[in-house]
Amino acid sequence: MLGDRPRVVRNAPPEARDAQPIDWPGRGLRLASVGRLHEQKGFDRMLLALAHPTLLALDWHWVIVGEGTEQGALEALCNRLGLKERVRFAGAMPAAAVLRGADLLLSPSRYEGMPLVPLEAAEAGVPVLASSIEAHRELFSEVPAALLPEEESAWPATLAAMMGSRDAQAQLRRACVGVLDADPRRSLWRAYEALYHEAMQR
User: pTM to 2 decimals?
Assistant: First the structure.
């Protein structure tokens, strides 16, 4: 109603679809991302961060699930940075295909509404490192370790600290799982139901 204080109802992750897990190369750290290949999603700035010598010294592979008009430009950037063998553009598929087996979800978006992929990752038990945009700050308000620095030049150091420590990843995983209710989809619909009942009684 006009004049009422705003009510926030957080999105819930969609129910995970059955999907054949992807094949991951080697035994290194498994990094995952899901999203349109578009400037909004910030994959270009994550590539620049991952090309830092500190991170090149670590054993990792990044799989990006999604399609979009920027794929050619992102692949060209991979080549220029020497990351061609480290990054795979897997095309469109359910998020579950890459989240199963992933060690860390990277969400470097420049802007979002209320992003679903970090919620899907949290429900799948995959720790998240996300850009410090408003939507991510709201989602991870109680998990500051999930947020990358606002200054992109500081990303490599933050990434290296997380990617180089299994203990840090385990701690972040437990914290990220805690951002969701035990049944987030049921909680979403209950929250909407309560709002509708309240509105109808006025």
Answer: 0.84
